[in-house]
Design a protein that fits this description.
It is built from 14 helices and eleven strands. With 342 residues, the chain is of the alpha/beta class. Strand 6, helix 6 (162-173) and strand 7 (182-185) form a beta-alpha-beta unit. It has helices at residues 3-8, 62-67, 69-75, 89-98, 110-116, 162-173, 188-196, 209-216, 239-244, 246-264, 267-278, 282-291, 301-316, 333-339, and strands spanning 52-58, 80-86, 103-106, 121-127, 134-139, 154-157, 182-185, 202-206, 219-224, 234-238, 296-297. Helix 8 (209-216) packs across helix 12, helix 10 packs across helix 14 (333-339) and helix 11 (267-278) packs across helix 12 (282-291).
């Protein structure tokens, strides 16, 4: 397989990439993180072919953008692709909710916050969990040795991200409550700066930032997601896209599925391409690539049930304003069958 073909299968280290169409929800949307009114969606075509896909992505998924194969596949259907970068899943889905993008890669937590804010989304596909690919870091000379030592400490992470749920799980495992720490909600770049400058006692983060910090900062890992992280990321699509353009969605999911499988068998080549594309330390990228679990699968009832447990936890902690039903994001079986992976 050619070098550029490697890239399509590498949607990200910790989250999958979601593809939706140029269609949007109508009316006023709300912010996926603040619950405040956002800009009204921009009207666009809802035809089965043609139009533009506005693709939100995170830095770790830049490879799909850089290789050009996605455009080639969609151009054959008369569809153009626009790319917009976001620092993490929550602001990406906030933009989707506001109608600024149509698609985006996220972990398990962002769609919960987005749904609670009124976003009309569906879970299109899921990727394998990556328990070793996220964890809690402290500085090398910190007195903190275990998660239990985080009591009363400042812990930085992106609110509503997979790191948010990981720290919730780790605290519970250590016999602590969420209120026992002082959360410092920051995007990965800002969190890293706060951590390095000593403005946060610990940093909860995912790959490739996690691996880069392990090798590039004098830090220690006190815990990761092993034994806890049972959910990976998701391909999130707008409801309109899934119902009106299922053939395009299905084609994209099939492309990613096949190349994810190929990437699982060619990790050294994956790491080499990512090192160049992300401009990160080669050792860090190789570490993240070697410990990642590749794979794209259908969203099952079992996954929906697990996702509901996560949503319930966030409501109990008052991090989302109201209870939600994840089942509400599932389309009727006949509609799912039109785009579902076999």
């Amino acid at each position: 397989m050619k070098r550029r073909d490697v890239l399509l299968g590498l949607t990200s280290f910790s989250v999958p990439i979601v593809v939706a169409s140029c269609t949007n929800n109508s009316g006023t949307s709300t912010s996926a993180t603040t619950g405040q009114p956002s800009a009204a969606p921009v009207a666009s075509s809802s035809t089965s072919s043609g139009g533009t896909v506005r693709f939100g992505y995170q830095k770790a998924s830049i490879l799909l953008k850089s290789q050009g194969n996605l455009e080639k596949r969609l151009n054959a259907e008369g569809v153009q692709v626009e790319w917009k970068e976001f620092p993490a899943g929550p602001p990406l889905l906030e933009a989707l909710n506001a109608g600024a993008i149509d698609i985006g890669p996220v972990g398990e937590s962002p769609p919960i916050f987005a749904q609670a804010a009124g976003a009309d989304l569906i879970y299109a596909a899921s990727v394998a969990p990556n328990p070793k690919g996220s964890g809690v870091l402290v500085l090398q000379d910190s007195s903190i040795q275990t998660v239990a030592d985080l009591k009363g400490k400042k812990v930085t992470f992106a609110k509503g991200s997979s790191a948010n749920y990981l720290i919730v799980q780790l605290l519970e495992q250590a016999g602590l409550q969420y209120s026992d720490i002082q959360p410092v909600y920051l995007t990965p770049a800002d969190a890293r700066a706060a951590f390095v400058q000593g403005n946060a006692d610990a940093w909860v983060i995912w790959d490739p930032f996690f691996a880069a910090a392990e090798t590039g900062i004098k830090s220690r890992v006190i815990a990761n997601g092993e034994g806890l992280n049972r959910l990976g990321g998701y391909y999130i699509a707008s409801r309109q896209f899934a119902t009106e353009r299922p053939k395009i969605l299905k084609a994209i999911l099939e492309e990613v599925r096949d190349l994810e499988a190929w990437s699982d068998q060619h990790r050294d080549q994956v790491a080499a391409v990512l090192t160049t594309a992300l401009k990160l330390d080669a050792t860090a990228v190789k570490t993240a690539t070697q410990r990642r679990q590749f794979g794209l699968k259908p969203v099952t009832e079992e996954l929906i049930a697990e996702q509901q447990k996560v949503a319930d936890v966030y409501y109990q902690l008052k991090l989302i304003p109201k209870p939600i039903r994840i089942q509400d994001t599932v389309l009727p079986p006949e509609q799912v069958a039109a785009y579902a992976l076999s």
